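Progress note, sequence design subtask.
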C-alpha cells in the first residue's frame, strides 16, 4: 500500500494550493479517503473526508467554504483544493485511506502559508 502526497509548498496568505494523494496497492474506490493536518505543537486534526463513490463529503468548520475534497477513482487519486489560505493553515498535511478497521497513511507534505 502506498499513499503519496504532492502539491504542497510555500504560498502567501490568500493564495491557493491543490494537494494530491496518489494511491496504490488497495481497492481505492472501496475506501473512505480523508485529509488530516498537524501543525507544530498541535494534535493531528481531520480536515475533510469523502466516501468511496465521492458522493458524500465532510469538511471541518475551519475549512468549510475554503477547502474542497474530491477524488478521481479511475486515477486512484485524492485531491484537496485549498483557497484563501491563512497562516493558521500552515501544517503537514496527510492523506488517509480507511475501511472498517483498516487505515493507511501517507508520509505527509508540508504546507506553509507566509508572506
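Output:
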Amino acid at each position: 500500500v502506498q499513499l503519496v502526497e504532492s502539491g504542497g509548498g510555500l504560498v502567501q496568505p490568500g493564495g491557493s494550493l491543490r494537494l494530491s494523494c496518489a494511491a496504490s496497492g488497495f481497492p481505492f474506490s472501496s475506501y473512505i479517503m480523508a485529509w488530516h493536518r498537524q501543525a507544530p505543537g498541535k494534535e493531528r486534526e481531520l480536515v475533510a473526508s469523502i466516501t468511496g463513490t465521492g458522493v458524500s463529503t465532510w469538511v471541518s468548520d475551519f475549512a468549510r467554504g475554503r477547502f474542497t475534497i474530491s477524488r478521481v477513482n479511475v486515477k486512484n487519486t485524492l485531491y484537496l483544493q485549498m483557497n484563501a489560505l491563512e497562516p493558521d493553515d500552515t501544517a503537514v498535511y496527510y492523506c488517509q485511506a480507511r475501511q472498517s478497521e483498516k487505515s493507511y497513511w501517507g508520509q505527509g507534505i508540508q504546507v506553509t502559508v507566509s508572506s
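The mean pLDDT is 97. Work on this subtask will continue into the next period as scheduled.
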